[in-house]
C-alpha cells in the first residue's frame, strides 16, 4: 500500500529512513535543514519533507580540487597504525562534530573526494564533541579549548577526556578570539577585568563551548565568580547569536571569534587571544578511508585557498598532526 506523503513521522522514524542517529535528526531540525512541527510536546516531520531534504542534498556541485600532489605529515608510529587493516566503520555512521562554517566546506570536499563520502554533522560545542567522540557517537570532533594552567589548546582536555583512548590531534586553523562590543565601544571595554564591572552586562556562550571555557578559565585565574557578573547566565548557542544580541542592545560584551563578528552590523571586535581550532580523531580510526581523505584535503592547495579566501583564518599549520595521546 502506498504511503501518504503527508504521513507524520517521529524523529526515530526519520532516522530509520535516512539511516542516521536520532540525535542527528534533531540536529538537522535545529538547523532548519528539515521542516518539522510540534504536536503538543512531540516533534513530528512529514514524509514529504524528508523526501525534500533528500532531494535538496543531492543538488551539490563538485569542487574542482586536484589532490594528486598532496601529502600528509605523520609520525612513524601513526604511519604504522594507518597500514593496519581495521574493521571499516558503518557506511552511514561517519559524523563530524563542530560548529565552524569551514566544516561545511570540508564536508563538501569529502563528498566528491575519490575515497570520500557524504558525511553527517553534529553541531556540538568543543567539550560535548569530545565526549561524543569518547562515546563513539562521532568519528571526528573539533575543539578550541584553552587550558589556563598550561596555556595550551585542546591537548590537555583530550588527555583528560579520552581515558584509555589513543587520539590524534590535527591542526585545522588558527582564529582570533576577542570581545564583541557595540560600534565605537561606548563602555570603553579593554580586557578581561571589564567582565566584573557593575555597569557591564554580558551575554555568554553555552557550557562546553570553547568561548565559554576561555572566559571561565580567565575568570578562574582572576578569582572572579560568574555569579557576580551581570548576564553571566544569559546564554546563546553561537558566535553570531552573541554578536546579534549585542548589536540589538541586549548586552554590552561577549566573547567570540573575529570572523563571526564581521558578519553582524553594529559590532566592533577587540582582539584578545589567538586560538587553535583542531580536529580530534581516535588513532584506531586513522586508517579509515574517510579519515585519510580528510587529511589529504587539509593538505591540498585548493582547500587552503578556499578557506583563505573567506578571511579570518590562519591556515599555516593546517593538516599538521600536532599531538598523539
Question: How are the SSEs placed, and which strands pair?
Answer:
Layout: E1 8-9, H1 11-18, H2 22-30, E2 37-39, E3 42-46, H3 47-58, H4 76-82, E4 95-97, H5 102-112, E5 120-122, H6 126-135, E6 140-143, H7 155-161, E7 167-182, E8 204-205, H8 210-221, E9 235-236, H9 239-247, E10 254-257, H10 258-261, E11 267-282, H11 289-299, H12 301-310, E12 321-324
Parallel strand pairs: 4-5, 8-9
Antiparallel strand pairs: 1-3, 2-3, 6-11, 7-10, 7-11, 7-12
What does this structure look like?
There is one protein chain. By secondary structure, the protein is of the alpha+beta class. Helix content is 34%, strand content 20%. The protein is built from twelve helices and twelve strands. The chain has helices at residues 11-18, 22-30, 47-58, 76-82, 102-112, 126-135, 155-161, 210-221, 239-247, 258-261, 289-299, 301-310, and strands spanning 8-9, 37-39, 42-46, 95-97, 120-122, 140-143, 167-182, 204-205, 235-236, 254-257, 267-282, 321-324. Strands 6, 7, 10, 11 and 12 form a five-stranded antiparallel β-sheet that branches. Strands 1-3-2 form a three-stranded antiparallel β-sheet. Helix 5 links the parallel strand 4 (95-97) and strand 5 (120-122). Helix 1 (11-18) crosses helix 2. The relative contact order is 0.17.
Amino acid at each position: 500500500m502506498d504511503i501518504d506523503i503527508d504521513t507524520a513521522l517521529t524523529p526515530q522514524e526519520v532516522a530509520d529512513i535516512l539511516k542516521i542517529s536520532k540525535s542527528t535528526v534533531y540536529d538537522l531540525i535545529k538547523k532548519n535543514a528539515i521542516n518539522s512541527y510540534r504536536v503538543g510536546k512531540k516533534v513530528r516531520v512529514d514524509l514529504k519533507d524528508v523526501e525534500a531534504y533528500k532531494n535538496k542534498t543531492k543538488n551539490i556541485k563538485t569542487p574542482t580540487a586536484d589532490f594528486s600532489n598532496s601529502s600528509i605529515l605523520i609520525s612513524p608510529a601513526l604511519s604504522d597504525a594507518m597500514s593496519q587493516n581495521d574493521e571499516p566503520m558503518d557506511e552511514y555512521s561517519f559524523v563530524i562534530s563542530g560548529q565552524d562554517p569551514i566544516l561545511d566546506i570540508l564536508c563538501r570536499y569529502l563528498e566528491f573526494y575519490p575515497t570520500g563520502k557524504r558525511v553527517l554533522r553534529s553541531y556540538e560545542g568543543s567539550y560535548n564533541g569530545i565526549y561524543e567522540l569518547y562515546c563513539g557517537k562521532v568519528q571526528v570532533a573539533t575543539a578550541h579549548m584553552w587550558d589556563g594552567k598550561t596555556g595550551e589548546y585542546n591537548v590537555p582536555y583530550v588527555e583528560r577526556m579520552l581515558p584509555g583512548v589513543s587520539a590524534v590531534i590535527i591542526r585545522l586553523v588558527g582564529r582570533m578570539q576577542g570581545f564583541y562590543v557595540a560600534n565605537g565601544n561606548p563602555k570603553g571595554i579593554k580586557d578581561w577585568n571589564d567582565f566584573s564591572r557593575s555597569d557591564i552586562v554580558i551575554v555568554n556562550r553555552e557550557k562546553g563551548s570553547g568561548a565559554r571555557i576561555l572566559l571561565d578559565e580567565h575568570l578562574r585565574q582572576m578569582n572572579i565568580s560568574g555569579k557576580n557578573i551581570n548576564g553571566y547566565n544569559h546564554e546563546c548557542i553561537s558566535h553570531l547569536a552573541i554578536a546579534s544580541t549585542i548589536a540589538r542592545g541586549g548586552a554590552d560584551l561577549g566573547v567570540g571569534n573575529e570572523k563571526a563578528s564581521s558578519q553582524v552590523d553594529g559590532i566592533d571586535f577587540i582582539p584578545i587571544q589567538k586560538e587553535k581550532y583542531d580536529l580530534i580523531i581516535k588513532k584506531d580510526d586513522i586508517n579509515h578511508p574517510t579519515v585519510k581523505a580528510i587529511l589529504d584535503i587539509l593538505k591540498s592547495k585548493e582547500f587552503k585557498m578556499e578557506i583563505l579566501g573567506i578571511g579570518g583564518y590562519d591556515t599555516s599549520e593546517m593538516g599538521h598532526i600536532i599531538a598523539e595521546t
